[in-house]
C-alpha cells in the first residue's frame, strides 16, 4: 500500500491526476491509497488528526494558505521529513522558496503521464531505501543510520541508548515507538531491550548474548515468543528466505 495525497483547488486537475495514478497503480502492480484535498486548510486539519502520506502532490498557488506555507507546516510544525512533496505550479519561479521544504520534485502544469510516473517511481525507490535506515532526532537535527550498523537499543528513563557496531548514541524517546520504525529482524526481548537478531551470537531461554559480548536478559512475558522468533529467523537465514 502506497499512500498518495493530492492537494489542489483545481478540481479538474485533481480528477485527472487521480485517474492517472489509478492507471499507474495497475501498471506498476502496486496498490495506491489516494486521497484528495481542495484546500491547504483541509489538508492541514487531516494531517493534525494523524493522516499519513508517502507522497503528496501539492499545489503552490492555493487560495488561502499556499503550498509553501503547508510545506513549512509539514516540515517544521509536524516535524515530518519523510513525506515526499512534489510541488505543482503553473509557474517556474519558486526554486529558492521551495529549497527549505526539501521537495522531491517541482512539476509544471499540465503534468504528463510520463512525468507523473517518473516522480512516483522515484518516491517509491527513496521510500524503500529509507526503510533500510533508522531516523532519530537530537535537538532540532534529524540523523539517519543504516539499520545494519545497529546491534540493539536499550531504554534509560526518558532516553534510548542505541548500541552500534562502532559506538553508541542516545536520544529522547520510547522503546516501543522506536520498534515501530524498525524493519523485520528487530525484536523486543524486554521492556528495556530491542535487539537486532542479525547480531545474536548465543541465546537461551533467559538471556541473549550479542556479538559485541553484551549479555541481555529476556523477561518472562517475552520468553516463549522470543525463542520462537529467533528460531524462525535463524531458519529463514539458513535457507535464504526473504
Write the layout of secondary structure elements.
Blueprint: E1 2-7, H1 11-28, E2 32-37, H2 40-48, E3 55-59, H3 67-77, E4 84-89, H4 95-99, E5 105-108, H5 113-130, E6 133-138, E7 141-146, E8 150-156, E9 159-164, E10 167-172, H6 175-181, E11 186-190, E12 193-196, E13 200-203, E14 207-210, E15 215-217, H7 223-238
Parallel strand pairs: 1-2, 1-3, 3-4, 4-5
Antiparallel strand pairs: 6-7, 8-9, 8-12, 9-10, 11-12, 13-14, 14-15
User: SS-based structural class?
Assistant: alpha/beta
The helix content is 25-40%
Number of helices: 7
Which band does the percent of strand residues land in? 25-35%
Low-confidence stretches: 238-242
Major beta sheet, specifics?
5 strands, parallel
Order of helices and strands: EHEHEHEHEHEEEEEHEEEEEH
Strand arrangement, major sheet: 2-1-3-4-5
Number of DSSP strands? Answer: 15
**What form results from the Cα inertia axes?**
elongated
Radius of gyration: 22 Å
For the terminal residues, how far apart are their CA atoms?
19 Å
What's the pLDDT, averaged over the residues?
89
Amino acid at each position: 500500500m502506497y499512500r498518495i495525497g493530492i492537494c489542489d483547488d483545481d478540481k479538474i486537475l485533481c480528477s485527472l491526476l487521480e485517474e492517472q495514478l489509478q492507471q499507474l497503480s495497475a501498471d506498476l502492480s502496486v496498490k495506491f491509497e489516494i486521497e484528495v484535498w481542495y484546500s491547504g486548510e483541509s489538508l492541514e486539519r487531516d494531517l493534525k488528526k494523524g493522516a499519513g502520506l508517502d507522497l503528496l502532490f501539492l499545489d503552490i498557488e492555493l487560495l488561502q494558505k499556499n503550498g509553501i506555507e503547508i510545506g513549512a507546516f509539514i516540515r517544521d510544525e509536524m516535524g515530518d521529513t519523510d513525506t515526499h512533496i512534489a510541488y505543482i505550479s503553473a509557474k517556474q519561479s519558486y526554486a529558492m522558496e521551495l529549497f527549505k521544504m526539501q521537495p522531491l520534485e517541482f512539476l509544471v502544469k499540465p503534468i504528463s503521464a510520463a512525468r507523473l510516473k517518473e516522480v512516483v517511481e522515484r518516491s517509491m525507490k527513496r521510500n524503500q531505501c529509507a526503510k533500510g535506515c533508522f531516523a532519530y532526532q537530537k535537538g532540532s537535527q534529524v540523523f539517519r543510520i543504516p539499520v545494519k550498523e545497529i546491534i540493539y537499543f536499550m531504554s534509560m528513563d526518558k532516553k534510548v541508548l542505541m548500541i552500534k557496531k562502532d559506538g553508541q548514541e542516545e536520544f529522547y524517546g520510547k522503546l516501543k515507538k522506536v520498534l515501530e520504525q524498525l524493519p523485520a529482524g528487530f525484536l523486543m526481548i524486554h521492556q528495556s531491550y530491542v535487539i537486532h537478531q542479525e547480531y545474536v551470537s548465543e541465546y537461551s531461554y533467559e538471556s541473549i548474548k550479542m556479538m559485541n559480548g553484551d549479555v541481555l536478559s529476556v523477561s518472562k512475558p517475552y520468553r516463549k515468543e522470543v525463542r520462537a522468533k529467533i528460531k524462525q529467523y535463524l531458519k529463514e537465514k539458513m535457507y535464504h528466505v526473504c
